Amino acid sequence: MNIHEISDGIHYVGVNDRDTQKFESLWPLPYGVTYNSYLVVDEKVALMDTVEIPEVGELLDNIRDIIGKDKTLDYLVVHHMEPDHSGAIPILVDEYPEMKIVGNKLTIGMIKGYYHIDDDSKYIEVADGQELSLGRRTLKFVTTPMIHWPETMMTYIAEDQVLFTGDAFGTFGALNGGVVDEQLDTTRYLREAYRYYANIVGKYGNFVMRGFKKLEGMTVGTICPTHGPVWRRDIDKISAIYTQLAQYESDPGVVIAYGSMYGNTAAVAEKIAEGLALRGMKNITVYNAAQAELSYMIRDCFRYKGIIIASATYQMNIFPPVRALMDALESREVKNKALGLVGSFTWAPGALPELKKYAERMKLPVVGELAVKQAYSEADQPKIDALCDAMVKAVEE
Ligand code: FEO
User: Fold this and answer.
1) For residue 122, how far is its CA from the centre of ligand 1 (angstroms)?
2) What is the 167 CA–ligand 1 centroid distance (Å)?
3) 3-state SS string over 131-182?
């Protein structure tokens, strides 16, 4: 068995991408990313998903290393149509003209739309629960809409207790030699799973839980996602991260994100951090929203219970980098958090009223608030103390 054979007859043929700077042109990739593809070799040969188009050469080499140059692929199962996984479909169709593309109705519509592969004889349309025999094994398809797009589905192979999950259970980070978690130190992949989930899948928590419910009753020994390691030893750990975040459940801790032009709002944020620390809170992260990278702030706001937003008034509104974070949380429908609000101003309090409207819209409880005129003064301290008291209580509840 070589390191890419994850179980008898099931091979990893995915690729590392250490070149792309930003996933979806948005999210930094300091450790790279993988586009995972798997080959199931039975009487019939099925490829599970493809890769981003620039990586297609490596995918084809990986496939040929296993089945040789002359053998064809019988099936390409498409679990998810986002182009990081579907980009190479047209090349695969050219390389393997006898290959059938297996997908649900939505998948096939998207392939036609993206890649103009209009010949219906190329497709096998499958529905939720439908099965396809490869010979010794049978593929069972489970539709899991909105993890992460409407067409997403998973495939279960009962004979091997293997589940191909698309983006679910995925994480950032290229693979460093090993493929299965047992071959790797997964600490960094698990940490990056918070950032991956919060930024990529975070909007669809209800759908994630609905999808996971459909998996109950399946015996799963190996999870093969489309990004990051194959999970076997750490299935419980990656599942716990996904189910926690999908249900908007929090770890104890507070994120303070501030926007400050001349340091006065920053000084208040630091006072609040000190106040929380004085009350025994250890897990506090302070972000200068104008400098910090958005995806890390989103990650921590998903993960931790307390969020304190401190904004200078800018053009009678919220300071733009703070607004960007707030918009990101709103679009992801973040729930079950305790909010603290600070709005600073020079002549008219523009930020705090907007922050309060936001909390109301988001239906998030505000445990404390204060308006700071010009610069921190002793007179602000009682409200800071009250905010810290209430936030510690809310986080510990
Ligand atoms: Fe990895 Fe939603 O694509």
Assistant:
1) 23
2) 5
3) EEECCCCEEEEEECCCCCCCCCEEEEECCCCEEEEECCCCCCCCCCCCCEHH
Computed from CA positions of residues 70, 76, 80, 83, in that sequence, does the dihedral angle turn out positive or negative? positive
Which residues are within 8 A (CB) of 288 and not within 5 positions of it... i.e. 6 or more apart?
A: 258, 259, 260, 266
Nearest ligand 1 atom, CA 227: 1
Find the helix or strand (DSSP H, E) in which 393 lies: helix 381-396
pLDDT tens per residue, range 332-383: 999 999 999 999 999 999 999 999 999 999 999 999 999 999 999 999 999 9
CA-nearest residue, atom 3 of ligand 1: 82
Residue-wise pLDDT tens digits, 307-325: 999 999 999 999 999 999 9
Separation CA 344–CA 369 (nearest Å): 11
pLDDT over threshold 90, residue 397: no
Contact criterion met (CB below 8 Å) for 14 and 51:
yes
> According to the model, what pLDDT value does residue 354 have?
98
Which residue puts its alpha carbon closest to atom 1 of ligand 1? 167
Q: Find out whether 55 and 47 touch, Cβ atoms under 8 Å.
A: no
Q: How far is the CA of 384 from the centre of ligand 1 (A)?
A: 42
- Whole-model pTM? 0.97
